[in-house]
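User: Can you model how 1,3-dihydroxyacetonephosphate sits in this protein?
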Amino acid sequence: MHSQTMESTVEAILAPGKGILAADESFPTIEKRFKALDIPATEETRGAYREMLFTAPDLNEFISGVILFDETLRAKTRDGTPIPEYLNRQGIIPGIKVDKGTSPLPNFENEKMTLGLDGLRERLAEYRALGARFTKWRVTFSISDSTPSPTCIETNAHSLALFAALCQEAGLVPIVEPEILMEGDHSIGRTEEVALHVLKNVFDQLAAHRVVLEHILLKPAMITPGSKCPDQSRLEIIAATTRRCLRRTVPAAVPGIVFLSGGQSDELATQRLAAICHASNVPWRISFSFGRALQTGALQTWKGSAENIITAQNALRQSAKNNSEAILGKVS
Ligand code: 13P
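Assistant: Here's the modeled complex, given as structure tokens:
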């Protein structure tokens, strides 16, 4: 019923040279980011920060969609325009994080499940009425000798599939985000092994729930060594491993893969994205859906002060432009 709507949402998000700005930090996450810079986290400061981001001049040259948090989808700019309407006027599609964060998986030490399926159908109807056109659900996996366990993989793959099916029922394009966390001293080979297993399970569950693959986007982490692994692989190895792993698991029917940045520095995230896009032997379009790798420079420049707005917006636009050039193959 909503097929055409979802198709045009996917096409608009994957417009050449454009990616997604993830600005959907939950209350605890934005508080952590603000605290590091001594910025108090209040409704007012969060609103001012996000308005600074979204009103960056010409952001729409490089950004096709923004993922919002519940509070921001309901917020207005200082001149009274609802945020989703403001974004739409710039040709930027508003999206919304709909999971309610992670929680310990009972009986499985250091493993997480994602909450938020209860009442999701009703929330999706409200989000759609508020102007959202796509959604995000994030599950996480930590790598250790004994994790992720098969139970953790199955539980999270199942929640992703139910989320995706409910979103498509509501005409919203789901961004399926199975994030394999970088923390640890494991090798890139171990990350690839885990990612193969996780992605296989995710696509099995999506098929079991009859999710239309043409109307989803996949948001994975790049396949990298653990952040404490002594052997930090070369760019070409990360790029080739990431492409191989995704080619082996992600059906060609999926229109696009939008990478998360996952705590890599801005520079590394952009360089690796460029290296992944360098070869054309993949069937999907590749882009970015970065949070930190787009926002860090802007946040550190803004520092909570109105007088820094223009320089902070310049920093955001520069990051967005760098990543746009990376996916267009303009970075060597
Ligand atoms: P990072 O790019 O900072 O990992 O954030 C992307 C995101 O949306 C995580 O859910």
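A couple of observations from the model: The pocket of 1,3-dihydroxyacetonephosphate is lined by residues 22, 138, 177, 260-262, 290-293 (CB under 6 Å). Residues 188-208 form the longest helix (21 residues).
User: Helpful, thanks.
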